[in-house]
Amino acid sequence: MFLPNNIMVTGGAGFIGSNFIHYLFNNPDFQGRVINVDSLTYAGNLENLTEIAASVGEKRYFFEKADICDGELMEALFKKYEVDAVIHFAAESHVDRSIYGPQEFIRTNIMGTFALLEASRKSWAGRKDVLFHYVSTDEVYGSLGETGYFYEDTSFDPRSPYSASKASAEHLVKSYFHTYGLPVTVSNCSNNYGPYHFPEKLIPLMVANAMEAKPLPIYGDGKNVRDWLYVEDHCTAISAIVNRGVRGEVYNIGGESEKNNLEVVHTICEVLEELYPLKDNPVVKEVSPGLGAYEELVTFVKDRPGHDRRYAVNCDKIKKELGWSPGTDFPSGLRKTIQWYIDNPGWVENIRSGEYKKWLEKNYDSR
Ligand code: NAD
Ligand code: DAU
User: Fold this and answer.
1) Which of 148, 79, 151 is nearest to 119 (CA)?
2) Among 111, 163, 168, 264, which residue's Cβ finds the most Cβ atoms within 10 Å?
3) For residue 41, pLDDT beyond 60
4) Which CATH number describes the domain made up of 6-194+231-256+309-328?
């Protein structure tokens, strides 16, 4: 078992990265240090880690506001903290934004990964007791029809600037294993959901909008399918790969929980009605007193260009070889998630009022 001492988590102030840091410090087997490297883009939010900064203290948790594209700085951080594992989450992660402006995706996702790989190669100089783990996505495999699955050896067929940038970086990561012998692992994961999820992505957007009686925009016919994974299960999968995964290998991670978007939104409305009934919702009472059900907020809007129809990963490999499986089913994961958003209106308000608001005003009207 490989238990790193000094883990550099890139993008640790984002959705999955911050959940991963919580997961590490909640795990008594982990006695090492975490160096959270994040440039705090619109998606980075240190509020996600307030408890960690307070409870773990200054000996085991460090935050470095830094851009992963700055190779010299990355090398300096490797040295400063004697980094022996990188879990690389930092990225521009939203498909819609990659359509409106792909440049930052190319810079951070490709050039940033390259800079980190170079820093690892130079700093580790042939060491084998180290690891670079790249958090990739099932979107690199393209789009499925009604049947079939993505396997680890499915050919890449990315269709958005986001997925193309992730695929490109994944190729680079694998090339460093073959060319330089850099110890790497890669995971290709399906759609995550859970606490601290930025409310521009489907599930948190629908929950936050419904709570504020705003329209719930469904792209196209709403029949696009995603495989949903509770974020904590993603964290346990990454931990299994870091500790027991074969170097140079790729592992698919999925929730085995395929749903089309209309089903997801319908379930959100049902659960919200139970946990936060319309009659007790002060915003609804004020702005939309005639609303009979959250579902009435559903609005069909223009489709996303190049909208992938269906994603579904086969994750037999990680199940058989590393003994991992998703521990949370969709109904209970979604319930926990919705309850978290009900309990944390301030978090949503803070994150929605800054850069995100400006971007929406420029690019969208309906939200
Ligand atoms: P996110 O957008 O919530 O967080 C990304 C974080 O990276 C932010 O904190 C941001 O400030 C930081 N960042 C961006 N550019 C940076 C730069 N140049 N330097 C340093 N930090 C920078 O993303 P997420 O949803 O948490 O996704 C994390 C990773 O997981 C991404 O690599 C994404 O491709 C991958 N992934 C996400 C999902 C999902 O469903 N969210 C599924 C599969 C894979
Ligand atoms: O599959 C893994 C990927 O999942 C990750 O690599 C990405 O980082 C992550 O953002 C996510 O990508 P998607 O494009 O699948 O997620 P998103 O939440 O943007 O959209 C999910 C589905 O919901 C998709 O079919 C588009 C649709 N959608 C989305 C939004 C934001 C809507 O119908 N309306 C919306 O307002």
Assistant:
1) 79
2) 163
3) yes
4) 3.40.50.720
What does the alpha-carbon distance between residue 118 and residue 114 come to, in Å, rounded to a whole number?
A: 6
Nearest-atom number in ligand 2 for the CA of 200 is 31
Q: How far apart are CA 7 and CA 89, in angstroms?
A: 12
In the chain, domain spans: 6-194+231-256+309-328
225: three-class secondary structure by DSSP: strand
366 has a pLDDT exceeding 60: no
Pocket residues: Cβ below 6 A from ligand 1: 11, 13-17, 38-41, 43-44, 67-69, 89-93, 108, 112, 135, 137, 166, 189, 191-192, 198
> Would you state the pLDDT for residue 4?
87
pTM of the model: 0.97
* 287 Cα–ligand 1 center, Å: 34
Q: Are 257 and 228 in contact (CB under 8 A)?
A: yes
Residue 23 has pLDDT above 80, yes or no: yes
